[in-house]
């Protein structure tokens, strides 16, 4: 009987989120961000190729042996605020190679989840969790649900619904990433003779599953963070403003700041491209960082449950 009630509550939660277009809006937002990311990578590659062509033509006009010039090693030296590049053509050639490397199939998940997981997932899924926790308070439907179910069942159904959405979101984004990559890669091949820029060391497939698991972990982690805060505060606006402010305005507060802990995983898993370079975190062993994050979020969820259930007139 309890299982049936729990399943029913979970369906109710998912039904509301679908009807409110909350899930649809979040998914569309991430798809748009993925398209923007790939468009930027495409534009960066095209600009680098055009610069290479310009440098190559200038050297041809000067009678320089292009093949010999490309065999040289590019060097960058700094004298105060002045940066000097030696062997400019080789330097431009290498930049084109680097740009094309970002379009290798092994880099699809890296490109998509590298910046989404570490920049956008934290605050968007925190707000999502806050909304899921607070809409029963906002629309005065909690007491109505408590007539037929326990607060514990309602609380767990919200957790389970966010878990299901995290799984679905990851599935959609993963599939969409390869489609978006293919579209822009085909477009790139029409504008750059890729075969002339042999790209080596494009990376291994070994990190692909780890990247997906990490991205899923971040979505669920911050959904739980938002859910817990929402149940404690019972309001969506103030916590959402605080979450956004912390993400974008507050500097990192030491090595145990959640953002610093996640950045340690980020540098371990991702290869960052010119569109997005993650800040260098204060080093924390990954096992320790993971243990701290998991302990923190479990503790917060338990605290929020205890507080919210006691505050509810019919809480259990």
Automatic annotation (TrEMBL):
It comes from Fervidibacillus halotolerans. This is ABC transporter permease. The keyword Membrane applies. Keywords: Membrane, Transmembrane, Transmembrane helix. The chain crosses the membrane at residues 21-41, 113-135, 155-180, 211-229, 236-254, 286-308. Coiled coil: none annotated. It comes from the Bacteria.
């Amino acid at each position: 009987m309890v299982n049936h009630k729990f399943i029913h509550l979970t369906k109710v939660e998912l039904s509301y989120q679908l009807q409110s277009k909350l899930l649809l809006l979040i998914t569309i937002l991430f798809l748009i961000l993925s398209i923007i990311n790939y468009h930027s990578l495409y534009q960066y590659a095209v600009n680098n190729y055009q610069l290479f062509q310009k440098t190559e033509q200038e050297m041809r006009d000067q009678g320089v042996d292009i093949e010999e010039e490309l065999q040289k090693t590019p060097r960058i030296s700094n004298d105060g605020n002045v940066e000097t590049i030696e062997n400019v053509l080789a330097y431009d050639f290498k930049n084109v190679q680097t740009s094309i490397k970002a379009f290798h199939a092994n880099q699809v998940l890296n490109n998509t989840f590298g910046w989404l997981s570490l920049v956008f997932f934290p605050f968007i899924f925190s707000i999502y969790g806050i909304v899921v926790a607070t809409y029963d308070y906002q629309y005065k439907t909690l007491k109505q649900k408590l007539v037929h179910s326990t607060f514990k069942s309602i609380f767990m159904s919200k957790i389970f619904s966010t878990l299901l959405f995290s799984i679905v979101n990851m599935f959609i984004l993963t599939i969409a990433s390869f489609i978006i990559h293919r579209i822009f890669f085909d477009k790139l091949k029409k504008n750059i003779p890729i075969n002339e820029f042999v790209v080596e060391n494009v990376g291994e497939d070994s990190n692909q599953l780890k990247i997906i698991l990490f991205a899923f972990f971040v979505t669920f982690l911050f959904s739980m963070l938002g859910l817990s805060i929402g149940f404690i505060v019972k309001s969506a606006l103030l916590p959402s403003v605080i979450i956004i402010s912390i993400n974008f305005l507050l500097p990192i507060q030491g090595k145990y700041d959640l953002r610093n802990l996640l950045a340690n995983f980020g540098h371990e898993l991702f290869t960052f491209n010119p569109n997005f370079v993650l800040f260098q975190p204060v080093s924390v062993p990954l096992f320790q960082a993971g243990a701290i994050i998991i302990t923190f979020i479990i503790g917060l969820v338990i605290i929020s449950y205890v507080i919210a259930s006691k505050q509810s007139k019919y809480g259990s």
